[in-house]
UniProtKB/TrEMBL annotation:
GO biological process per UniProt: regulation of DNA-templated transcription
Sequence ranges assigned to domain Ribbon-helix-helix protein CopG in this UniProt record: 3-41
Pfam families the UniProt entry points to: RHH_1
CDD domains: RHH_CopG_NikR-like
Superkingdom: Bacteria
InterPro entries, sorted: Arc_rbn_hlx_hlx, CopG
Protein name (database record): Ribbon-helix-helix protein, CopG family
Organism listed in the record: Tsuneonella aeria
């Protein structure tokens, strides 16, 4: 497992420490879970985010294809 260095505002660190203590996990474990959850959400949002993107466009006519 690789290590990273992240700069966060003091308020975020205090929130992170409080959340980690409330779940009885380390700060690092909470951040790993957050990244994992973010990856799952963005991966599952794949093609669904494009549904309806052309809803305001009309379908091309046959004579336009020539």
């Amino acid at each position: 497992m690789a290590r990273i260095l992240v700069d966060l505002p003091d308020d975020d660190i205090r929130w992170l420490d409080h959340a980690a203590a409330g779940q009885n996990v380390s700060r690092a474990a909470l951040l790993r879970e957050a990244v994992h959850t973010y990856r799952d959400r963005t991966a599952s949002a794949g093609i669904e985010r494009f549904f309806g993107i052309w809803q305001d466009r009309s379908a091309p006519r046959d004579e336009d294809a020539q």
